[in-house]
Task: structure prediction
Amino acid sequence: MKFTNKTDIFFDLDHTLWDFERNSALTFEKIFNSHHIQVSLTEFLKHYVPVNMKYWALYREDKIDQATLRYKRLKEVFDLVPFQVSDADIHLISEEYIKYLPTFNHLFDGAIEALDYLKPKYNLHIITNGFQEVQNGKLKNAKIEHYFTTVTNSEMAGVKKPNPKIFEFALQLAKAKKSNSLMVGDSLEADMEGAKNIGLDALFFNETKTEEPHSFPQIYHLSELKNIL
Result:
């Protein structure tokens, strides 16, 4: 597998370059310790990971807003653990989570090496559904913002992946041609199908080694980008 005639590479951020689950766990650990929340972090995260994915899917489909996402994902998990916590405390934890999340900056293994390899050869960009304030903090604190010519988020575009409009917005912002561009991401629905639906080539970063059937070319480690670009 080799992509040719590419000039612009678009990356998703969370779960693709930025190790969301690791950084998220460290954020909750900090919050639980500072507020003396007597909950097993392992038990909490066992529920939080799928619950968070569920509410992000609803958010992506415009079935809930930001505030609902931030509140309900925590409310549901504390109910499942179970641990009694007031609505006021849930809102406080939610605010602190958003505040502290960008301060943890673990990237996936091979991310910097891949970006160093790609930067001289391609224009690099970000397309993310994440909140602008949080995503900008992640890029800055992880010291990778200088790699990217443009950063498109769903708040700027007014829609979320897989909506074709966010990809069109990103291409226009980057002044990139669809035929010369590639989308790299971890979500089969948001990144892969979203890109495919506008005729944009897509590469699946299958770091979790999911066995879900799909027809997209894939890599399991970011170092593999050197072999195909």
Remarks:
- Residues 8-19+107-228 form a domain with the Rossmann fold fold (CATH 3.40.50.1000).
- The two ends are 9 Å apart (CA to CA).
- Residues 71 and 91 are 7 Å apart (CA to CA).
- The chain is about 50% helix and 10% strand.
